Every structure is written in C-alpha cells, then in structure tokens.
Amino acid sequence: MKRRDFLTSAAALSLFVTDAWATKKQAKTKTAAGSAKHKGAAGKTAKSSKLSKKAASKHDRRHKGKNVYRPREPVAHTAEDPVIEHPPQGTTASKLPPVKAVEPPSEWRTYEITTTVNLKNKNGPTKFWLPLPLNQDTLFQRTLGHSWLGNPASASMRRLPDGDLEVFCCEWTESGDAHLQLTTLVTTADRHFDITRRTVAPEREDILRRNLQASQLLPNDGLAFQLGERILGRIKDPVAQAKAVYDWVVDNTIYDPSLPDCGSGDVRKQLIQGQYGGRSADINGLFVAICRSIGIPARCVYGMRTGPSRLFNSLGLISDDATHGQHVRAEFYVPGYGWIPVDPSDVRRAISKEILSDRDSKLISLKKILFGVWEMNWIAFNFGTDIVLPGKNAPIPFMLIPQLETAGRRIDSDSPAAPAYSIRTRQVEV
Predict the structure, then answer these.
(1) What is the DSSP string of 232-298?
(2) Which strand (E) or helix (H) includes residue 29?
(3) % pLDDT > 90, the chain
(4) pLDDT by residue (tens digit) across 273-310?
(5) Cα(229)–Cα(235) distance, rounded to whole angstroms?
(6) Helices and strands in the chain: count of H runs, count of E runs
(7) How far is CA 94 from the centre of its chain?
(8) What is the mean pLDDT of residues 205-212?
(9) Which candidate, 277, 298, 398, places its Cα nearest to that of 349?
(10) Given a cut of 90, is residue 112 above it in pLDDT?
(11) So what's the pLDDT on residue 409?
C-alpha cells in the first residue's frame, strides 16, 4: 500500500472511531437523563395508591414505541405442544432437553449375508464361532432373521450375559467332511448425527460405566490420559472435546494395509512406542481410549462391510466377496445426543487407498462427513471386549473374525489350499 493511501485510510478510521465514541457517549447521556426523569415520576406516583385514567393515558402516550413489560398470558399446552417443549422460564423443565421418539429413517437397504464352511477330511472334533449382527434393533440396523443348513452335530446361538455379543456356535464331533451354510438378512439405513437436536433419552448407567473402563488393549489412564489432556487444552464442551480428539487422530495416525484383518487393536503398544496407526481396530481404538481417558464414554463397534460405497470405492466392497470385509467403527456418548458415530480410520484409509493429499478438498469433505455419519454399506456385529467364547477358557480382545478350530488348533482362513470359510453378501428386495 502506498504511503498516501495508508494515511487516507488511517484518517478515515480515526474519524469513524471518533464518531462512534461520540454517539455512544450521547446515548449514555440520554439514558442517564431518562433514568432520572423516571425516578422523579416514580416518586410522585408513590404518593397516590392508584393511577387515574387520565394519568394512565398520558403514561401510555409517553412510552409509545418503547418496550414496556406486561405479564405474559398463561400458555395452553396440548399433546402436540407439551410443557417440556416450551416450559416456563426459570423452571427445572426449561433446563432439560426435550425427549421425543426419534423418527425412523425412510430409506432402508437389505443385505443377505451367507457364510459357508467347507472342510475336507478334517481330523478330530471341530468347533466354529461366527459373530452375528446386533441382537437389538436400532434406528440404523435391524436383523430380519437367520437360517442355516449343514452337518454339524450341534448348533446354537449364544448371547453373552452383558448383551454386547451374540454368536452362532456349532461343532462337528467326528472326523470327515464338515459343511455349514448360514444366511442372515439385515436391513440398514444411513446414520446421521444432528447437532441441533438434543432429544435422546439417557443411556443406562451400567452401559456408560462399562464404556469408561479400560480393557486389555484399551487403556484409560497414564499415557492415554496425558495425551487426552494435551489434545483438549481448555475445551469444555463434550462434543467439541470429542471433535478435537477425532481431528488429532485423523491428523496423527497412519493407515497400514499390510497388517492382517483389522489390525491388533493394541492401543497400549501405540502409546508406549509413540507410533500411532494401523488398521481400523487400531485407529478407532485409539480414539476410543483417548475419549475414555478424559471422561467421555466411547466404544468400538465391530462389524463388516456389505456393499459398495457412495463416498469412495475403497470404503466399500467391490464385489460380493466379504470374507475380508471386516471393519471396526467407533462412537461416543453425550447426554441429550446419545451415541454419536465416527470413523477416523476410514479417513486415513481413503488417504492411503485413493492417494489423496492432506489438503485435498475431497479429503476435507470426507473428514467432516465421518464425524457424525455412518454410511450403512456396513453392518454392526457387537461392542464386546475381552470375550470368553462358549467352550473356550481364554478371553480374546474382541470378536470380529470367525473362529474355526480343529483339535484345539485354529484353522487359518487364508490357507491357499482350501479356505476354511467364505462370506458372500448381496443386496436384496424384501
């Protein structure tokens, strides 16, 4: 900027500030005079018990156009307009978020998931455990039914006592061929978080306590707490706190496609080594651990991709083969909002698979979307951690991959000679 232009701008700014200050001072003077005038009027009025009609008329003319307080009329509430929607100011109800039944989504997609087990000439007893979709209906997922056929000696569906996991268990007691085909119908709807609506009923206290506790691989103190405190700074709002953790995890982790399955989920190891990342169980597990350490209930949600993605090809299936489509997501809890969905892992996956830069506009949009949105080309299995499967003694950190054992030895599903099992999925009309 030239010196002449700079001096002109400075002079204009000085005049603007001077005029603004003069206007403000003049307004204060008028206010003070008006206040004194009202005090005098109040003193005179106090001498008489009632104001005459003539004086009242004069009073109204004097205050015409001004805000004069008048008692508010009683509010009539109906079933469509209950008191908790518009409560009287200052009452306890005015401090509580309204609780409504959330309207279910209108657009649903139904998937048929078929798991097939084929073992030739197996030796000795063989056991198989398969995670099943959520056993309770939600606003984003409903299980329509299961059916199976095959030659196991016994088969059943088992639910863990805490309700976080349901599995299909079967066993072949003799040597020979083993066959099983289990088909499940699940319908899903995209899940969205609306920050403008605090209308969700409170979650059970025991569930919230469980999702604040540490597990084998997810710490909630020590290094996790120190990292959480460093990320938060002076942020107080819980949604903003979780968003800060989400942003930090996205910006400071690396997606490693070379790891098997969904990764180990060992967040303790990440914190000790100071190297953050892995696959979905590792990245989203890190988000959950940090949230728990700062007092926000959070949990991993273990599931599987079931169809193509409308966002990026890498965030969905490219065929009907879902044998290796397992994927872990996460959610955190805020009173009034309920469980809020997130997926920082898929942001990092898109960077790795789609070869995007951190400043790419598509990536910036995806980062915003995946805080509060789940594209439901994916089904949720369970929230369980440190699980003891029926018929086993040692716990496993989480149940996501089907488990198949012969004579106490796990069978690798990636065997090139004869894959132990396969999972196929397709969208159907019901």
Answers:
(1) HTT---HHHHHHHHHHHHHHH-EE-TTSSTT----HHHHHHHT--EESHHHHHHHHHHHHHHTT--E
(2) helix 3-46
(3) 56
(4) 999 999 999 999 999 999 999 999 999 999 999 999 99
(5) 10
(6) 9, 17
(7) 27
(8) 94
(9) 277
(10) yes
(11) 79
User: Is 428 within 8 Å of 110 (Cβ atoms)?
Assistant: yes
C-alpha–C-alpha distance, residues 256 and 352, integer Å: 8
CATH of domain 109-187+385-428: 2.60.40.2250
pLDDT for 110 equals 97
What integer pLDDT is reported at residue 333 of this predicted model?
96
First-to-last C-alpha distance (Å) of the chain = 69
Cβ atoms of 205 and 150 within 8 Å: the answer is no
- Domain(s) of CATH 2.60.40.2250: residues in the chain: 109-187+385-428
Q: Is 113 helix (H, G, I), strand (E, B) or coil?
A: strand
Residue 83 pLDDT exceeds 90:
no
| Residue 342 confidence (pLDDT) above 80 | yes
**Residue 152 and residue 172 in contact, taking contact as beta carbons nearer than 8 Å:** yes
- Burial (CB count within 10 angstroms: exposed 0-12, middle 13-18, buried 19+), residue 164: buried
**Phi and psi for 101 in degrees, rounded to 5?**
-75, 120
Beta strands in 310-372 (DSSP E): 326-334, 338-342
> Which amino acid does the sequence have at 240?
A
CATH 3.90.550.10 fits 192-375, yes or no: no
Question: Residues 323, 415: contact at Cβ < 8 Å?
Answer: no
Question: What is the model's pLDDT at position 92?
Answer: 41
Beginning with the edge strand found earlier in the chain, give each strand of the sheet holding 166-172 in spatial order: 154-159, 166-172, 126-131, 403-406, 409-410
pLDDT at residue 113 in the model: 97
Residue 119 pLDDT exceeds 80: yes
Phi, psi angle pair for 122, to nearest 5°: -70, 155
CATH 3.10.620.30 maps onto the chain at 192-375
pTM: 0.75
Quick check: helix, strand or coil at residue 149?
strand
The predicted model gives 215-239 an average pLDDT of 94
